[in-house]
């Protein structure tokens, strides 16, 4: 389920406060989610109405913060960490997305968006677990566009193994 289904493919979502809150309430309370062990909510960066509404509307067992390595992205992620701490939502950990690119031709690896140390430092500073790195790889996007996650379409790839290691750690953390 996605907010994107509520508007046309090319239509921008130009909603403010009350409209966003109403749409979130519908997604959270009127969608038949069935019997779930986990519901993942992919939120925009920051600490606005969307995040606050969710923390007020449903009981959250925890939050996972995802950030790319750039300083500016990490600053937003840390704001999210601080917001969840303020509203007493446990932080299950942090993931670094697009952490490493491996050239398909020469197989050299590069930290295109900066070093790995910023996210791990933020984890240490805020006493939250570092859950792992997701590499920058075109097939992750291609798989998602086809509606087939990398862990299903390429289960033996390093990318899928990175996702599975994070999922396994989160499962252990929440007792699944």
Automatic annotation (TrEMBL):
InterPro entries: Mrp/NBP35_ATP-bd, NUBPL-like, P-loop_NTPase, YlxH/NBP35. The keyword Lipoprotein does not apply. It comes from the Eukaryota. GO terms for cellular component: mitochondrion. GO terms for molecular function: 4 iron, 4 sulfur cluster binding; ATP binding; ATP-dependent FeS chaperone activity; metal ion binding. GO terms for biological process: iron-sulfur cluster assembly; mitochondrial respiratory chain complex I assembly. Keywords: ATP-binding, Iron, Iron-sulfur, Metal-binding, Nucleotide-binding. It holds the Pfam family ParA. Belongs to the Mrp/NBP35 ATP-binding proteins family. This is Iron-sulfur protein. It comes from Lachnellula subtilissima. The gene is Nubpl.
